[in-house]
Amino acid sequence: MRQVSAVLLLCLSVALVGATPTPSPSPAPSPAPAAPIVIVYPFSVTGEIKGDTGVKAAQLFVQQMREGGGVTTIDGSATVKRSDYPADAKSNHAEYYLSGYMTALGDGVALVEQLVSVHNSTIVYANSAQIQSFNDAAAQAHAVHDAIIADQNRFSAALNDQQSAASATPTPLPGNEANIGGLFKHRGAKATPKPKATPASKPAKGIFVVRIAGDLTGSELAAGTRTLLASLDTYYNATMSGVAGNAAANANGICGTQRDNTVASGSVKTASVKSGFFHKTQYTFTLDVYTCFGAPLSQASGTADSLTGAIQTAVQSYATSHPNNA
Asked: Alpha helices, DSSP H only, in 71-175?
């Protein structure tokens, strides 16, 4: 029988060296109290692909998504039938579940993945790609991770809008909470919205985000800039600047009359590092924050196996050192 995708299968094996062989929940919860849980089921395989490849690929997705931060990943059991995924994911208190299948395609493997919301059974993200290396597979995991973060951000925005509307209305309508509950399950949320616990308020000083730079493609830099915006908006009131180019030189024009704000941008560098018998790409992101006069305020950096992870690490470092964005 023709041996298919030997390099890919070996990559998946090497990538999982040192991983706990028995699937288990994440060792510690994410720092964010509302981190969504996603359960990743072994991918189905067809053709000449070895049966355990789907399990290894799913474990790789779990590792890469966990490193990206902001989500809690769980290995799904190989004994669960596809038709039982929704019920099993719900029993594991997951907000999402990921499934897919792999089939031989030329010298590589065609991978189809599908991310589903447990609470309303809608497909949040679906994609198909041809993978031939560790980096190809990791990139697909990062894309799923980013789709979850984006979906959570959309939900947060909708929730904030509803909370604002509820605050302006003396008597909340009884159907509002049920509508939001249909989208996501709020672990620990109280059924009655009476005196609402106000989340930690963001500092008065907002932050303008300028497109990042680095040795990546234009689309990758654009995606990285969106990640930077979302990450900063977790801690501050972040706004995308319409001005491109040097953040320090253009800070004055970017801020306009909002002189108390800051301006943030950054750069990314990649390096090929050895991973078992192969090499993988490692990302280092340097975050630069300036005052509206263009003076450097702070610099923070983060390194990870994904651009998202590197950016989130750098932003968290800045937020820890400058909780008031000053």
From this structure: 85-91, 134-168
Residues 177 and 162 sit within 8 Å (Cβ to Cβ): no
Query: What is the distance of C-alpha 42 from the center of its chain?
Result: 20
d(CA 314, CA 319): 9
* Residue 126, strand partner residues: 114
- Of the candidates 255, 11, 291, 270, which has an alpha carbon nearest to the alpha carbon of residue 141? 11
Burial 237-249 (b: 16+ CB within 10 A, else e): ebbebebeeebbe
pLDDT in tens, 14-69: 455 444 455 555 555 444 446 889 999 999 888 778 878 888 889 999 999 988 88
Do 183 and 151 meet the contact criterion of CB atoms below 8 Å apart?
Answer: no
- pLDDT at site 301: 93
Q: Report the relative pairing of strands 37-40 and 72-75 from DSSP bridges.
A: parallel
Cα gap 315→228, rounded to integer Å:
8
Count of C-beta atoms within a 10 Å radius of residue 131:
22
| Residue 200 · residue 169 · CB < 8 Å | no
In the numeric block, the tokens 């005052």 are attached to 291
Question: What is the spatial distance between Cα 192 and Cα 70, in angstroms, rounded to a whole number?
Answer: 27
Q: Lowest mean pLDDT: which of 2-6, 152-156, 172-176, 227-231?
A: 172-176
Q: Is the model's pLDDT at 6 over the cut of 60?
A: no
Q: Does the pLDDT at position 113 exceed 50?
A: yes
* Pairing assessment for the beta strands 44-45 and 262-275 based on DSSP bridges: unpaired
Structure tokens at 113: 């993945």
pLDDT digits (tens, 9 = 90+) for 69-109: 889 999 999 999 999 999 999 999 999 999 988 888 777 78
In this structure, the chain runs to a length of 326
**What share of residues in the chain are helix, strand, coil (percent, to 5)?**
35, 25, 40
Q: How far apart are CA 116 and CA 100, in angstroms?
A: 11
